[in-house]
Please model this.
Amino acid sequence: MKKNNKKITVIGHAIISRDCFIADAVGSMPPDLRSDSDWKLFQEDLYYSDLVMIGRTSYKKFPENKRNRLIPTNQINGYDMREDLCFFNPNDIPMNQILLKYKPYPKKIAVAGGQGVYQLVFEQFAYSEFHLSIKENYELKEGIHMIKGINQLELVNEYMNKHGMYQSDKRRLDSDTIQHRYLKS
Ligand SMILES: NC(=O)c1ccc[n+]([C@@H]2O[C@H](COP(=O)([O-])OP(=O)(O)OC[C@H]3O[C@@H](n4cnc5c(N)ncnc54)[C@H](OP(=O)(O)O)[C@@H]3O)[C@@H](O)[C@H]2O)c1
Model:
């Protein structure tokens, strides 16, 4: 995929309940929303990424992590770039512009969510791939949806299609988790 005339791979990662939640009503991930196989695949992709994009709430849970992180926030004007952390306000400086501040330009970005981050990449940039793991037998009924207002898997699929992404592959990760892989058409 080419953005800013530069070659870049952007992979989104999410694990959702069958009613499409990424977290419960208090913003936590209950144990039943986790899968060891999904976690392993996610960690492997992080290892091969030169930048990880996460929301400020998720960042606050693991601030000491030493990965190179890009964090959208409404709390600042413009951006604040440090050694391995960059906070930016996407209303002031859009994602394609903040990426140009990186020297060298990132080759591979992992998008770890949550909701506002997934949506930001759909709206301001683009994904090359999206790895969507689904806990098929688990419903949360309330909490934070992966995409605001979308509570059915068919509607997630429609949303992906609307953003030019098509399901390329389905793989079973464990007895109750399936991963749908989307690719940019
Ligand atoms: N199941 C999964 O795959 C998955 C993935 C990720 C997270 N989670 C879970 O979900 C929980 C909560 O997720 P969340 O979606 O509420 O939080 P989040 O994305 O981790 O953080 C939300 C915060 O990030 C900033 N932000 C996000 N998108 C933005 C945008 N487009 N523009 C400006 N700022 C933006 C805002 O910070 P400011 O308040 O500073 O403006 C916002 O309050 C996490 O704590 C984690 O447990 C689950």
Observations:
- The longest helix spans residues 36-47.
